[in-house]
Specification:
The chain is mainly beta and 153 residues long. The protein has a domain of 81 residues: OB fold (Dihydrolipoamide Acetyltransferase, E2P) (Beta Barrel), CATH 2.40.50.140. β4 and β5 form a beta hairpin. The longest helix is centred in the N-terminal third of the chain and has 16 residues. The radius of gyration is 37 Å and the shape is elongated. The relative contact order is 0.14. The mean pLDDT is 77.
Length: 153
């Protein structure tokens, strides 16, 4: 039995009677049929994976370092040039037998300072977009002053 609600002489809504306990089995059967039919659908067909794109280079230049050569894990010399590039500093270190570029995080050391570098490894043909410069060989490492103290950051 439905009832109408009248407002200002016009019908506004139709009320449905409250379900009774006698309606419960019918409603339960409808729900079971509805959900049962939804569960009987065939399994989805797997989608073949597309070939993956080439892996982009690592965000950190330390990701593809060549290990230091035997006996070259620690270098020492004097800083003769210093270039700042964001969180990295590039130091040209000169010793009696070599002249090489070092990349280090932090402040590095000032020109003229005697330093010891612990090498993490090196990269050949390294391009620094921030400096707009290419290095034939660049050693990545941590720098400390030769007197044993660490440079300021």
């Amino acid at each position: 039995m439905n009832r109408m609600i009248w407002t200002n002489g016009n019908p506004r809504a139709k009320l449905s009677p409250m379900p009774t306990l006698a309606d419960a089995p019918r409603r339960l059967i409808r729900l079971l049929v509805l959900f049962g039919a939804a569960g009987c659908s065939p399994a989805p067909t797997p989608i073949a994976a597309e070939p993956s794109a080439p892996t982009p280079p690592p965000a950190s230049p330390l990701g593809t370092l060549d290990p230091p050569a035997p006996g070259a894990a620690e270098l020492s010399g004097t800083v003769v040039e210093r270039l700042a590039a964001g969180r990295y500093h590039y130091l040209r270190i000169r010793s009696a037998d070599t002249d090489r570029w070092i990349a280090t995080m932090g402040a590095g050391a000032d020109v003229g300072a005697r330093v010891v570098v612990r090498s993490f490894g090196l990269r050949r043909d390294f391009d620094s977009p921030r400096l707009g410069r290419r290095f034939d060989e660049l050693t990545f490492g941590s720098v400390r002053l030769a007197d044993g103290s660490t440079p300021p950051t």
